[in-house]
Amino acid sequence: MSSLWPHLRAVFVSLHIAAIVAMAIPSPSGGMQRSAWKDPTVQDEIHAWSSRLTWLGFSADPVEFEDQLWDFATAYMDARNKIIRPAFAYARWCGTWQPWQMFVAPHRYPSRLHVDVLIDETWQPIYIARSSNHDWQRPLLDHERVRSMLFRYAWRHHRRNHRKFCKWLAVSAAEDFPDATQIRMRWHQTQTPTPEEVRSGSISEGSFSTPIVFDLKVFR
Q1: Among 35, 143, 177, 196, which is least packed, fewest CB within 10 Å?
Q2: CA-CA distance, 93 to 87, in Å (whole number)?
Q3: How far apart are CA 213 and CA 102, in angstroms?
Q4: What is the average pLDDT across 151-158?
Q5: How many CA atoms does the CB half-sphere of 148 hold within 13 Å?
Q6: 190-211 pLDDT per residue, tens
Q7: CA distance 19 to 155
Q8: Distance CA 91, CA 85 (A)
């Protein structure tokens, strides 16, 4: 065994390195949903790369480029999944699976959560992300773990989980605001201003998404 162990150790270390390399193969992961590609941030990236390819002399219509990119990404993910399948089982068995990824591009259209309650037929804000004046449940909603979760909920393909979270918030609001009859949760989305827009003061006001509204009497 003393003479065999160095060879076994070398094989194990080699397989371990191979598993790490395989698991590190880049992947869009949760971005492989076509609805997510309709987000303004993604569309900006597609148009930007389409313009760059056109400038280099390639024919790159944004719509055709998106379709081609989707076909490539689908084939790429199929191949990647086959490659990492053994490594995935190894990582799960060791408890070293890392589900999150680093940022791939700046989010040009960030969303901010707004929560309002209806009191005497008037909508009153109780929470606005990063606001010092409307800070209901702020220790929870501004927690770094919850902020990561809310970032996902602002994307269209995560709206089902977002609705569940809003329903959970409605239960708390029903107790904290006994005079309120409804609760409304919506996202305010605006484009990140350019330096020129900041200097000139011409910053976009943005727009609100379709609100999710619950009747608070149901939760009392």
Answers
A1: 196
A2: 10
A3: 34
A4: 80
A5: 6
A6: 888 888 888 888 888 889 988 9
A7: 31
A8: 10
